[in-house]
Design brief:
Oligomer: single chain
Distance between the termini: 40 Å
Structural class: mainly alpha
Radius of gyration: 15 Å
Strand content: under 5%
Largest sheet: none
């Protein structure tokens, strides 16, 4: 099993990557047609909320111990899975 410090760094790296991904998607959304741009902005807001939630949980993880640690790890893993799905869907829409 991955140790605490490695996991915290992994989460921070994910959040940093999400920030880069969001910047790329924002640029593509801005270039989209006006009718599609509104939908993209809505989806971007959802992705930002997920990123913010992950950042909040990362801060909680730094303080968590025992069962609380396991709970936060499980929660952040679920957030990561949801991010991958949502990001992939939006990226595909912007390609199409």
């Amino acid at each position: 099993m991955i140790n605490r410090d490695e996991y915290l760094q992994k989460v921070k790296n994910h959040i940093d990557q999400w920030n880069q991904d969001l910047k790329q998607l924002e640029a593509k959304a801005e270039a989209a047609q006006a009718d599609a741009a509104a939908e993209y902005r809505k989806q971007l807001e959802y992705l930002r909320e997920m990123r913010d939630d992950a950042a909040k949980r990362h801060a909680q993880m730094q303080e968590a111990a025992g069962d609380a640690w396991k709970e936060v790890v499980h929660s952040i893993d679920k957030t990561w899975d949801a991010w991958v799905d949502a990001f992939g869907q939006m990226r595909d829409k912007l390609k199409g």
